[in-house]
Design goal:
Blueprint lengths: L14 H11 L8 E6 L6 H9 L2 H6 L2 E5 L6 H10 L3 H4 L4 H11 L5 E5 L5 H14 L8 E6 L13 E4 L5 H12 L3 H7 L1 H16 L4 H9 L1
Parallel strand pairs: 1-4, 1-5, 2-3, 3-4
Helix pairs in contact: 4-6, 6-7, 8-10, 8-11, 9-10
């Protein structure tokens, strides 16, 4: 099964991206450890999309271990090591990045793993990841995957050859409006027909959502107002 149905209200208009990511994660004819950079502007829905896939039962069953890492640039490898080796950050405080890599590798030995680095990849991070990735994340040829989020698509090239890139584009005006209605639990046609006041408010909202290149996160926040 290479598709996942995502009922979550905030995942709307990303069916193609969602199915492409699932297919990549479960690609049975490619057992090598692979890396993908999911790129898009801030608020484009990268974290929401990846998190829904990450938490889906199908993906949970597919990998022996999964780790979701959120980190600032300075503590990236400490946070990765803390998650993977289940060590406290205090114990890792005095360790250099290169000294943590063997410990990470040892903890992942023989396991099929999915690691998500929700870090907004920068060129500096890319250099650090490229420097340590082979030592930290072994290729056991069992389908392990590493997914990295970034606001900057050009940073993916700094990770080296063989890194796949998935760029999230902007939603169409129809998708933006449907995302709004989906989060609002609102029957637009019924509301417009109910009374003149509701119709005017909804028409104004529709113009705003359809006319401007509003990001998914902005639409969700608009609904919350």
């Amino acid at each position: 099964m290479d598709t996942i149905t995502m009922p979550n209200k905030q995942v709307f208009g990303f069916d193609e991206d969602l199915n492409a990511l699932v297919k990549w994660l479960k690609k049975e004819n490619d057992p090598h450890r692979r890396i993908m950079c999911i790129a898009g502007s801030c608020g484009a829905g990268k974290t929401t999309l990846v998190k829904k896939i990450y938490n889906s039962p199908d993906i949970q069953e597919h990998f022996h271990d999964r780790f979701w890492v959120i980190s600032g640039e300075f503590n990236l490898w400490k946070n990765i090591s803390s998650k993977v080796t289940r060590s406290s950050l205090e114990k890792l405080e005095q360790m250099a990045d290169e000294d943590m890599c063997p410990k990470i590798s040892s903890a992942l030995e023989g396991k099929s793993y999915l690691i998500v680095l929700d870090i907004n990849l920068t060129n500096t991070w890319a250099t650090s990841i490229k420097l340590h990735i082979e030592k930290a994340f072994p290729d056991h040829k069992n389908g392990s995957r590493i997914a990295i989020t970034s606001n900057h698509i050009e940073c993916a090239s700094q990770l080296g050859e063989g890194v796949e890139v998935r760029e999230l584009g902007l939603l169409s005006w129809e998708e933006r409006w449907n995302l709004f209605l989906n989060n609002f639990d609102y029957n637009a046609e019924a509301a417009k027909a109910s009374n003149e006041s509701s119709s005017k408010v909804l028409n104004a909202l529709e113009v705003t959502v359809r006319k401007h290149w509003i990001l998914p996160s902005e639409i969700v926040n608009l609904v919350a107002l």
